[in-house]
Design brief:
Layout: H1 13-22, H2 41-54, E1 61-63, H3 64-74, H4 82-92, E2 99-101, H5 102-124, E3 143-148, E4 154-158, E5 162-166, E6 172-177, E7 188-194, E8 199-204, E9 208-213, E10 219-224, E11 230-239, E12 242-249, E13 253-259, H6 262-270, E14 274-275, E15 278-282, H7 283-286, E16 292-298
Parallel strand pairs: 10-15
Antiparallel strand pairs: 1-2, 3-4, 4-5, 5-6, 7-8, 8-9, 9-10, 11-12, 12-13, 13-16, 14-15
Helix pairs in contact: 2-3
């Protein structure tokens, strides 16, 4: 049956038990020893001393009778039968001369120990079934960030502006390309969720912060002409319809924008003239509003990435 199918084959515990029931009982009657479990260093020393004491003629060998007596005494195996002793002796001394030396016995134990080590090593290896099945499942474009929503779904945004919503079991539910309406190339740098206002906020490489409806992924408004590229975004709701969002840029600055009556402010920006099909307001005009507080903090001279 194994020859009819290519690839690797494994015997599970259930199948192994079935094979044991079907094979003759004598196939598993031989007694086996585990060096690292059943035989300790003290046991080995006792065995060696017993071998030397039984070798009265000093030939380096003992007969099967003495061999069985040593096993029963030193390894505390009083119920070990003669058939098991003879079977073990044949495994160690295949010439079946009815005698065994300490070198042969210790070599057998060492080989058995190495065999078990090899078995453990092989179990740790990964087995591949061949021929392999090729599946094209890579996205190929960098994901700028991953956020979870209040309902347990997961949202990812790729660098090219592709937004993907995943279920809690990580199955894709819907995708949308945010930048497909633009003629020139645009890329996303980071995004954050404004859950209290059902908005998705994306920073772009064109120095913009764009706001989208979280439920429909439709563009809502944007703040443009930041004068720098927002590399990382964050958002916090401060209560009573007040919130803040902040971004770090390539010039080592952290910009903090505080919005009071944020829902009205966002609705006002949504009614402004559009730029590239998105209602647009420049940052210099946005900060003129009394409902907007603008803070720019020079942290260092390198990129702010988090």
């Amino acid at each position: 049956m194994l020859k009819q199918n290519n690839g690797r084959h494994f015997v599970t515990h259930g199948v192994e038990a079935q094979i044991r029931r079907q094979l003759p009982q004598w196939a598993f009657s031989a007694h086996s020893f585990e060096v690292n479990e059943n035989i300790s260093l003290d046991d080995l020393q006792k065995l060696k001393l017993a071998f030397e004491e039984s070798d009265v003629s000093r030939t380096g060998y003992i007969d099967v009778k003495n061999f069985g007596h040593i096993l029963k005494k030193c390894l505390k195996e009083p119920n070990m039968g003669n058939a098991q002793i003879h079977s073990l002796l044949k495994k160690i001394n295949y010439s079946d001369q009815g005698r065994i030396s300490w070198v042969e016995f210790s070599t057998y134990l060492l080989q058995q120990y190495k065999a078990k080590e090899e078995t453990v090593r092989r179990r740790k290896q990964v087995a591949f079934n061949l021929p392999a099945t090729v599946r094209d499942c890579g996205h190929g474009v960098t994901i700028v960030n991953i956020h979870s929503t209040h309902d347990g779904t997961v949202l990812t945004v790729r660098e090219d502006g592709l937004v993907c919503q995943w279920s809690s079991e990580l199955k894709p539910q819907r995708t949308k390309h945010m930048f497909k309406v633009h003629r020139r190339s645009k890329w996303a740098t980071d995004f954050a969720l404004m859950s209290e206002y059902n908005k998705l906020m994306i920073g772009t490489g064109d120095g913009e912060i764009q706001f989208y409806e979280l439920s429909s992924l439709e563009p809502y408004c944007q703040i443009s002409a930041l004068g720098t590229i927002p590399l990382t975004l964050d958002y916090s709701y401060t209560g009573s319809d007040n919130c803040c969002f902040l971004y770090g840029d390539m010039e080592g600055c952290v910009t903090i924008i505080l919005l009071s009556t944020a829902e009205d402010t966002l609705r006002l920006w949504n009614r402004l003239p559009k730029a590239e099909n998105v209602p647009n307001i420049a940052i210099k005009n946005a900060v003129l509003s009394q409902k907007v507080t603008f803070v720019r903090w020079k942290v260092h001279h390198d990129w702010v990435t988090q």
